């Protein structure tokens, strides 16, 4: 579903990603991890064609990422998702849903709000939402489009333990999705993901969860 070959990205003449190649298969759940500044966001933004790449090729569902057709297969949740505080949760969802379609799917709106546990709070203005509720609303907006590939940048960042648990529970329920998410929390990764893409010194190496634990956990690497 996501194929990266010989990807190189530089920032101010310094290589951030250096000849990276990785494959993420259909319905795989893969975590992108690495130290702060390792280039996780750069990798995600390169996939989404938000940053220019110096060299390499990226295919998303078999489509070159420089062509717009790949966008219908992908939904992206950035670390900081901008919502409209004066709108209710449901109004926010409706607004973003309307950007890609001329007709709102009423049944889908209800399904999504229930999935992200916001049905009872659907008529509350989002400025009154907690951080966890805002993150679930952002996730709901992303899920409305029913894309097969989900890319999430630090989806539990800044959340309390209950908020993190809510997000992980929702993501675990998405059995038919291919998921790539960046995270600093190995405990969350182990609950959700099948694989880890470890980014270090501009290189990415992919491991199964068991392989990663066997190689790194005893050495104290995070």
From TrEMBL:
Keyword Transport set for record: yes
Keyword Secreted among record annotations: no
Sorted UniProt keywords: ATP-binding, Nucleotide-binding, Transport
A single GO molecular function term of this UniProt record: ATP binding
Residue span(s) of domain ABC transporter: 2-217
Pfam families assigned: ABC_tran
PANTHER family membership: ABC TRANSPORTER ATP-BINDING PROTEIN ALBC-RELATED
Protein name (Swiss-Prot/TrEMBL): ABC transporter domain-containing protein
Source species: Parageobacillus toebii
């Amino acid at each position: 579903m996501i194929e990266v070959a010989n990807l190189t990205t530089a920032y101010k003449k310094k290589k951030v990603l250096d000849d990276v190649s990785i494959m993420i298969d259909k319905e795989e759940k893969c975590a992108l991890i690495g130290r702060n500044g390792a280039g996780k966001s750069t990798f995600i933004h390169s996939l989404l064609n938000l940053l220019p790449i110096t060299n390499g090729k990226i295919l998303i569902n078999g489509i070159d990422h420089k062509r717009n057709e790949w966008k219908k297969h992908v939904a992206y949740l950035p670390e900081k998702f901008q919502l409209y505080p004066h709108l209710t949760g449901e109004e926010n969802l409706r607004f973003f849903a309307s950007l890609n379609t001329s007709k709102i799917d009423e049944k889908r709106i209800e399904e999504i709000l229930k999935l992200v546990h916001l049905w009872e709070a659907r008529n509350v203005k989002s400025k009154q939402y907690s951080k966890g509720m805002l993150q679930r609303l952002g996730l709901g907006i992303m899920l409305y489009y029913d894309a097969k590939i989900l890319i999430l940048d630090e989806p539990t960042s800044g959340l309390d333990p209950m908020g993190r648990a809510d997000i992980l529970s929702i993501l675990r329920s998405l059995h038919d999705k291919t998921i790539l998410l960046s995270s600093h929390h190995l405990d969350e990764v182990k609950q959700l993901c099948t694989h880890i893409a470890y980014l270090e010194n501009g290189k990415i190496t992919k491991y199964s969860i068991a392989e990663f634990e066997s190689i790194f956990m005893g050495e104290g690497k995070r």
